[in-house]
Amino acid sequence: MSLTHVDDTTTTNVESPKYDCDVIVVGAGPAGAAAAYYMAKDGLKVIVLEQAIFPRDKVCGDFVSPGSLGELTKMGIATLEAFQETHTVDYATIYLSGKPLVAGTFPLVEDMPRYSRVIPRRVLDSLILQAARKAGATVLEGTRLVNFVVQKDWVTVVAAQKEETKTFRTRLIVGADGNNSLVARILTKASWSKTERALVARAYFEGVTGNSSEANVFYGNGSFPGYSWLFPISKNEANVGVGLVGGASPEAENPKNLLTKLIQNDAGMYSRLKDAKLKGEIEVAALNLHDAQMPIVGDRVMLIGEAAGLVNPYNGEGIQFGLKSAKWASETATASMKSKNFAESGLATYSKRVEDELGYGFKISALMLGLLRNRNLNHAWLRWIELMGEKSKSDPEYARLTSGILSGMIFPNQEETARALTGTLEEAALSVGLTTFSQVVNDPSKLPQSAENMLQTGVVAARYAAQDPFAALKWGMEAATRMTEIATVVSKQVLKEYKNKTGSQQ
Ligand SMILES: Cc1cc2nc3c(=O)[nH]c(=O)nc-3n(C[C@H](O)[C@H](O)[C@H](O)COP(=O)(O)OP(=O)(O)OC[C@H]3O[C@@H](n4cnc5c(N)ncnc54)[C@H](O)[C@@H]3O)c2cc1C
Question: Ligand 1 in contact with 32 (CB < 6 A)?
């Protein structure tokens, strides 16, 4: 069977097609289960196809941020007894090159608790799926999506259940099938490139020492651009891992080895794990990063959660955006049932919502990643982290912003918050001669003109640093592309403001 997205119009004359459901959701992780919950609550007939049998593990840091907790509270999950029994963390220490850099409690952000939970996914995902079932969704576990075909009046969905093949007819299909999403691959006829992914390793340890309410993030040359972490799941156990942007270095391709090395050699990690014992295996997984070029809606199709690349690029958190995108997509699904408009243009309210809420922050992060990916300049980028730590100690508002961004409580989706990051990155960038970057962060209106300069600056700086013209060119090109993406957003904003001011319709 070919995995192609086909617009088959042979069914035009069928007068009243029989549907098995309104929506098929593929995947019962946080995004899929939350979408099923919201849509079933809105009265839609929902079938969830999930290849695994629950409870199932998912390789993850298990960090359920204050933002995720806010979403789970709205769904009535955070008050469940089983949820309340899970482990809380209310303090964090950030390490740089083995030494503590900053430490403190979670910042004060409106409508969010000042703690997070660390919940193994066997537990968390089962609780969300239980809420979806309770709301009225039908969940078919052990059922794997094999293909789908978009036709004029419906979507034909083919799934495998053990040896059997099942076919469903639905009005809409929602892809919530995670980092290697088949729905996304069929929709876009593509897969993610190595550079738009991070490779991540995770392990559980027992016999962990130190404060069990304290989470740790460790930065250092070995794991940058990326970081390693220790998130306690009980009094003496912790989830420990490392993630690096794909293609950044040979280490990025073997995160399991890297994690083993870091535990021995990073003084910060070692201080908590010296007496600890590995439980089970070190597991490796990929994490999708956002790709601005990737469509997340098509005729009768929407992608949510990690299938849509909706992972917070500032901390690798995917649960919060999974839950949020589920809610936004379900609002669009409910509206489309009323308007009977399932075309890509009708579902675009969802992609527009994602763009409005997250677009700017994604573009700033893509620019930063373009810069940080040049590991020959690691000394400058690690200096950036050091500067952020130093500034946080003397400037409480700056500390609130940066710790809010790192803990997923604040997303830098406005110039003001983005500046907290880019301001110090600018200082670090200046130290390696990236003058154009500095001009741009000081005056975003210069962005459109500066993309070209950025290319030159990038190439020059990278060539000096890398002594490798090919790598330098590639890196410079990438930085320029990212700048152009931001330039487009800023130009649109400027145009919108201009129209508002002048009342112009053009
Ligand atoms: C090592 C690591 C650490 C991370 N740490 C954190 C963290 O601490 N906090 C955080 O918020 N995020 C973290 N993330 C990201 C987070 O795990 C994901 O972004 C999040 O799980 C995405 O949720 P989802 O519902 O979109 O997809 P998933 O949770 O991946 O769920 C997808 C579901 O789809 C099912 N599926 C897949 N294909 C099919 C198919 N063909 N048919 C039927 N079912 C299918 C899968 O079995 C799965 O149940 C981490 C990721 C990694 C890799």
Answer: yes
Two tokens, residue 27 = 């995947």
Taking the chain (506 residues) in runs of 10, the rounded mean pLDDT of each run is 37 62 98 98 98 97 96 96 97 94 91 94 98 98 98 97 96 96 91 70 98 96 88 98 80 87 95 97 92 92 96 93 98 97 97 94 77 70 83 88 88 76 70 56 50 49 45 52 53 55 53
Calculate the dihedral angle through the C-alpha atoms of 244, 246, 251, 253, rounding to the nearest 10 degrees.
120
Ligand 1: nearest atom to the Cα of 243: 1
Per-domain residue ranges of the chain? 360-502
Tell me which residue of 77, 52, 202 sits closest to 139, measured CA to CA.
52
For 59, residues 6+ apart whose C-beta sits below 8 A from its C-beta are 200, 202, 283, 284, 285
The token pair at 398 is: 């700056």
The interface pTM score, or ipTM, of the predicted complex is 0.99
Report the separation in Å between the CA atom of 282 and the middle of ligand 1, taken as the mean of its atom positions.
17
Q: Is 200 in the pocket of ligand 1 (CB under 6 A)?
A: yes
Nearest alpha carbon to residue 25 among 46, 44, 40, 52: 46
67 Cβ inside 6 Å of ligand 1: no
d(CA 408, CA 13): 50
